[in-house]
C-alpha cells in the first residue's frame, strides 16, 4: 500500500470513487471524458501548499482510496492550524477490510506532521454509518455544523 499525492491522471479514478455512493452520485459527473472543471479544480488544489489530494494505491498500482486534506491558518488557538479532511473514499471492492481506518490513521499522522492542533470533518446526517465510524476513530461530535449552498 502506498499513500501519495494525486496526479492528473488519477482524477478519473478519484471521481469514480466520489460518485460511487448515495449522495455522490447525485452531485458528480462521471462521463468519459470527464468534464474539464475537474481538471481545473485539481490544478488549483495541486498548486496550493495548504491542500493535499491523496490517493491510496495497492500493490497492483490501482487507486483504491482517496482523501483531501486542507490546512487552515487561524488566529484562534494562538495562531493554530486546523486540518480539514474531506472526500474520504475507499473503492467499493476494497471496503470492509480496514482500509478506511488506515486512510484516517495516515491523515491523522499527516495533520500532526503539519503541526495542526486538530483535525476536523463534517459528515452529512444522512450517513449515520460514517458518523459511527468517525466516532470509533476518536472524533467527537462537539459542534453543530451548518452550510449555506449557493447553487
What's the SSE blueprint?
Layout: E1 2-5, H1 11-19, H2 24-27, H3 36-47, E2 51-57, E3 63-73, H4 76-79, E4 81-90, H5 99-113, E5 118-120, H6 128-136
Parallel strand pairs: 4-5
Antiparallel strand pairs: 1-2, 2-3, 3-4
Structural account:
The chain has 151 residues and is of the alpha+beta class. The protein has six helices and five strands; from the N terminus they run βαααββαβαβα. The radius of gyration is 16 Å and the shape is globular.
What labels would you give this structure?
alpha+beta; five-stranded mixed beta sheet; single chain; Aminopeptidase; 151 residues; 5 strands
What's the gist of this structure?
Helix content is 35%, strand content 23%.
| Relevant CATH superfamily | Gcn5-related N-acetyltransferase (GNAT)
CATH topology descriptor: Aminopeptidase
Strand line-up of the largest beta sheet: 1-2-3-4-5
Can you tell me the overall shape? globular
Please indicate the percent range of residues in DSSP E strands (runs of 2 or more): 15-25%
Question: Got a strand count?
Answer: 5
Give helix and strand order, one letter per element, not per position: EHHHEEHEHEH
Distance between the termini: 38 Å
Tell me about the biggest sheet? 5 strands, mixed
Structural class: alpha+beta
Overall average residue pLDDT? 95
The DSSP helix count reads 6
Please give the domain count: 1
CATH class: Alpha Beta
Cα-atom radius of gyration: 16 Å
Q: Uncertain segments of ≥5 residues (pLDDT<50)?
A: none
Amino acid at each position: 500500500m502506498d499513500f501519495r499525492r494525486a496526479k492528473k491522471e488519477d482524477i478519473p479514478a478519484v471521481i469514480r470513487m466520489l460518485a460511487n455512493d448515495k449522495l455522490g452520485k447525485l452531485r458528480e459527473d462521471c462521463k468519459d471524458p470527464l468534464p474539464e472543471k475537474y481538471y481545473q479544480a485539481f490544478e488549483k488544489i495541486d498548486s496550493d501548499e495548504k491542500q493535499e489530494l491523496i490517493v491510496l494505491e495497492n500493490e497492483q498500482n490501482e487507486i483504491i482510496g482517496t482523501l483531501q486534506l486542507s490546512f487552515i491558518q487561524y488566529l484562534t488557538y494562538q495562531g493554530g492550524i486546523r486540518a480539514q479532511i474531506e472526500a474520504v473514499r475507499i473503492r467499493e471492492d476494497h471496503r470492509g477490510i480496514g482500509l478506511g481506518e488506515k486512510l484516517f490513521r495516515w491523515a491523522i499522522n499527516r495533520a500532526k506532521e503539519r503541526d495542526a492542533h486538530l483535525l476536523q470533518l463534517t459528515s452529512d446526517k444522512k450517513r449515520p454509518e460514517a458518523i459511527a465510524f468517525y466516532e470509533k476513530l476518536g472524533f467527537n461530535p462537539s459542534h453543530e455544523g451548518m452550510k449555506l449552498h449557493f447553487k
